[in-house]
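Chapter summary example.
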Amino acid sequence: MAYDQGMNDSRAPQDIVQAQQQVTLVESDGIPLPALAAWSRAALTLFAATLFATAAMAETTPPATRTFTVQALVPVDAAGQGGTPSFSGELAPEARQLLTARIAGLEFEPATHDGRPVPSDLSLAVRLKVLNVEGRWRFEADHIAAAPVVTQQARYPGAALEQGLGAAIMLRVTVAARTGPERVTAIVLGADYLGQAVGKLQREAFTRAALASVNGCCSLFERIDGQPLAFEVNVPVIFIVDRDRSKFDAAAFSARWQTDAPALPRGLVRARIKPAP
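The structure predicted for these 277 residues follows.
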């Protein structure tokens, strides 16, 4: 599904999709990362587009394509009927119209509380492509999935990419059932590195990029039966160049950090999208 906008639109992609939520960045022992302190304060005003920027992002000519992941919150009643979604950040009217239409075409199974169907607000990750074709903006929404934590594609650190270095960073994202600047916390559980010269500076660059990918992840509140949800989820962020993919087992890396802790309070089950027939 796609939507075309009028000719010669001068807006940059970061004016079409803007991220608003910040996470608190901490190490695995809960101490704020000193090297990231100034960066995390600046992250309050990061556009979602920044996560896809290159060193040449300041160029006036917009790229042909940018891809963003937008968080949508859709109310699902006890009968499984979806309502009008809300979106994180600010969307251009054309993009909002497209995503609303895509979500309206979904079918849901309702959330349950102790086995009883109940209303809920379900978080969705919606992949939005913004294309500039000869001065004409075109929007495409090609993937929608239920996701309590909505991440952006991590920006590969430029120096590490040039040196052929790779990394796998496991983050734990904790979302509290309250408002406030510390509602969302991301901690680094561990990391693996690929390459002979992954020094301190490269490791810090990989860490910053991984944490940036979850900035804006959970700005909308999920609820089940009127209850705001608090939860934790592990999020792997992988930086591997194509030629090295065969050298790294992403599934095994993720499996090392699996936990038996319940994803939700006892008795609560999220709504879900019904598979397409």
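To summarize the output: Residues 2-264 form one domain.
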